[in-house]
Amino acid sequence: MTSMQAQVLLVEDEAAQREVLTYNLKAEGFAVRCAENGEEAMLMIAEAVPDLVILDWMMPRVSGLEVCRQIKTRDDTRHIPVIMLSARSEEVDTVRGLETGADDYVIKPYSLNELMARARTQLRRNRSGSVAILSFEDITLDAESHRASRNNQELKLGPTEFRLLARLMERPGRVFSREQLLDLVWGQDIFVESRTVDVHVGRLRKTLTRFGGSDPIRTVRGAGYALG
């Protein structure tokens, strides 16, 4: 069973920079996907929501500033930390980047060690900032009282289905593989067959649609499951 890797989306139009950053991010243990421009980045985010976006400001067609703005104005992506990279070193540029929604602003040229440290910090902050009550569309989950509801109707969930729903709700739109869900829900030290995930997802789907409404869990063929 593999450990959970943080998913980083790197958006950089310069091939040499993209190659160096990808190498170093992978060396840090991150799973990396790359986009060469802003349009491609938004398509990739729509397919699978990452844990962190590292984003160059100056790109053709759609700028990094606009990509950041779109990420931070959408309900399903506003939680994603964004590190903006830019050769613009004036204070007014830094302020503009941060006011657009960037969680950090790194001026080129930068230290790779420092950038990796900043990436780890953003991921740590984002994960430690989880809240007791989660919501997605008409679904609400209270981790403290261990209760969940949909459209104000209480959902009768077993402990495994409850943990599974909680993990999916923590990252709406994010595609989780079966191995990742096994690690997150059952734990890395317990051997469980991946087929078990399918069974519990089926049970969770049945409960979520018990009072009507569409199935909010999306199956991504060959990849796993996502909420929304």
Automatic annotation (TrEMBL):
Residues 131-228 bind DNA. InterPro entries: CheY-like_superfamily, OmpR/PhoB-type_DNA-bd, Sig_transdc_resp-reg_C-effctor, Sig_transdc_resp-reg_PhoB, Sig_transdc_resp-reg_receiver, WalR-like, WH-like_DNA-bd_sf. Its main location: cytoplasm. This protein is a positive regulator for the phosphate regulon. Transcription of this operon is positively regulated by PhoB and PhoR when phosphate is limited. This is Phosphate regulon transcriptional regulatory protein PhoB. Residues 131-228 form the OmpR/PhoB-type domain. NCBIfam families: PhoB (TIGR02154). It holds the Pfam family Response_reg. It comes from Pelagivirga sediminicola. One of its GO terms (biological process) is regulation of DNA-templated transcription. GO terms for molecular function: phosphorelay response regulator activity; transcription cis-regulatory region binding. Coiled coil: none annotated. The gene is phoB. One of its GO terms (cellular component) is cytosol. Keywords: Activator, Cytoplasm, DNA-binding, Phosphate transport, Phosphoprotein, Transcription, Transcription regulation, Transport, Two-component regulatory system. The modification 4-aspartylphosphate is found at residue 56. It is found in: Cytoplasm. Residues 7-123 form the Response regulatory domain.
